[in-house]
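Practice problem 4.
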């Protein structure tokens, strides 16, 4: 049998590693730094907001009007509201950590890889969890902040704002982008298997 008639061995395709322009690598490195800044500054901002912010600011975050305040908030109520504010932020910080990891890989030229797809899906999932937790935690915060009110004057407030919807849209957008990259990677691996 001649060499031309022999079947070619099928090799397993590795992830596509295109040569990224220096501009994209540089932007990815800047995004890693921006993620680090957010990971450090957001928790500090939350602490300042929860402890230095006025009672009215905390009420507004819980979708309550200033008229809902019958007496100054106790330290225990502030601490409870702070914990409830921290939960969605914690989810968001995990999403930012995953984004930082993705941008670090992008800076190294690893774009169309399974790690990139998984990382982007994690970003989307954690950001969506943060948006949903913000809705639930603001409801719980309204209860905590009015807990010392007399019976019949305690409140449970629900507020859905455009920021929640935009955050959920962003999470869905990143998830779809991850799926597109994953499908592109599979097609490239299939094509490489035929060569």
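Answer key:
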């Amino acid at each position: 049998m001649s060499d031309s008639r022999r079947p070619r061995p099928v090799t397993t395709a590795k992830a596509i590693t295109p040569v990224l322009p220096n501009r994209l690598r540089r932007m990815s490195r800047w995004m890693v730094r921006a993620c680090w800044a957010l990971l450090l500054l957001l928790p500090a901002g939350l602490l300042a907001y929860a402890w230095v912010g006025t009672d009215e600011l905390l009420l507004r975050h819980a979708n309550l009007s200033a008229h809902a305040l019958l007496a100054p908030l106790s330290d225990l109520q502030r601490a409870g509201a702070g914990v409830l504010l921290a939960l969605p932020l914690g989810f968001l910080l995990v999403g930012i950590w995953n984004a930082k990891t993705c941008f670090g890989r992008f800076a190294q030229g690893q774009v169309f890889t399974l790690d990139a797809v998984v990382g982007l899906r994690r970003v989307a999932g954690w950001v969506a969890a943060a948006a949903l937790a913000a809705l639930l935690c603001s409801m719980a915060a309204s209860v905590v902040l009015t807990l010392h009110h007399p019976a019949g004057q305690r409140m449970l407030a629900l507020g859905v704002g455009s920021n929640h919807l935009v955050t959920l849209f962003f999470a869905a957008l990143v998830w779809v982008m991850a799926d597109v990259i994953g499908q592109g990677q599979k097609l490239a691996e299939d094509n490489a298997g035929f060569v």
